[in-house]
Amino acid sequence: MWNASISTRACQVFFFIIILQIPLFRVPCRSGTCTCPLQVTAAQLVTSKAAPSLLVKLLLYPGACVQTIFTEFTFPRWSNILEKYNLTNAATIQSLELNRLELLIGSYFAVAGAVAGLLKPGRMSLFGVLLLVWGLIREGLFDKSGKQASVYMSPLMVLAVVCAFLSVKYDSEKVQRLVRPTARPLKSSAKTKLR
């Protein structure tokens, strides 16, 4: 069915956008400047010790490979992944994410939705991307510091939003029933018979 193939392809593209760390925005975070939801999530996971460093390295390694292949023409060393992203001393830096809660939660949902979307397409990635967009817009609108904008949204965010929207799997038969309800004959009542 065409609907299932579109949502499957959109989930795959969204997964590669997240895992390969395509720059979607620029925000200050614990590790310096984060440019994708995976970096925000990894910085928070490392500092809160909610996940083992092996899992964080496993998530960051594909994007690190792509970045170093294009810049240095080599593969990064597994042992230096956390140093590459400046996550070894991230726990000592004061938290900026609590002021940007939409960005943090949106990043969590986007990463979890990208991974879970490979198994079963769902709404988690769309919810995460919409939270990210709202958080970035809110930061841009309500930033009264007058300094140079510390938050930037890349035009590639549109691609992430479209892929997250298309990854939601809709039941087309259910939608058709809601749009075109079947006509039912009127039941005759006692009042109509009297007239």
Automatic annotation (TrEMBL):
Record keywords: Membrane, Signal, Transmembrane, Transmembrane helix
Chain ranges passing through the membrane: 108-137, 149-168
Range of residues in the leader sequence: 1-31
Domain of life (superkingdom): Eukaryota
Name of this protein: Uncharacterized protein
Organism the protein comes from: Ceratopteris richardii
